[in-house]
Design a protein that fits this description.
Elements (H helix, E strand, L loop, with lengths): L1 H22 L4 E5 L7 E2 L1 H8 L13 E5 H12 L3 H14 L7 E3 L2 H10 L3 E6 L8 E2 L1 E2 L13
Parallel strand pairs: 2-7, 3-4, 3-5
Antiparallel strand pairs: 1-5, 1-6
Length: 154
């Protein structure tokens, strides 16, 4: 009986550590492939992309969306002003009506997000700023980096 409890405790600890940056209020960074020409995106354009109302970066290049599931609730509230379930419902409704070209790809790990960004020059995603590395480029949102005062996605 003690062995299953230890496994459960280890699993809970692992999930807590995995989600810790999100729960502690870590800034959520918006990232793209380093070869992407974009350096800045407006919060309005970001909202439009992640609500399916736009499909391109500000310069007109196609944007392929991905999301980091553990960061989604924070991102959806801070960037979109909506709850996660409302955002998901909107995408499902657009898909049902044939209005959504491509649904955002959902990833549960940072490694999957890194791979997606590395494999797709047109990719855009978000994840806790503390987990960004040099394989991706962080976009400024409304001219601000995640470490700047007034960064809009907290």
């Amino acid at each position: 009986m003690a062995q299953p409890l230890r496994r459960a405790a280890r699993a809970a600890l692992f999930l807590t550590i995995l989600l810790l940056p999100v729960r502690l209020g870590a800034q959520v960074a918006v990232v793209v492939n380093p070869h992407n020409a974009a350096d800045d995106i407006s919060l309005d354009r970001l909202k439009r992309l992640y609500l399916g109302q736009a499909t391109t970066f500000p310069a007109g290049d196609h944007a392929r969306l991905a999301l980091h599931v553990p960061s989604s609730e924070r991102f959806d509230q801070a960037a979109l002003g909506l709850g996660r379930e409302i955002v998901r419902s909107r995408w499902m409704a657009m898909a049902f009506r044939g209005e959504a070209g491509t649904l955002p790809v959902e990833y549960t790990t940072v490694e999957e997000v890194r791979k997606f960004i590395g494999d797709h020059p047109d990719g855009i995603a978000y994840l806790p700023a503390s987990l960004v590395d040099d394989t991706m480029k962080v976009l400024r949102v409304d001219g601000k980096r995640p470490t700047d005062p007034g960064y809009p996605i907290k």
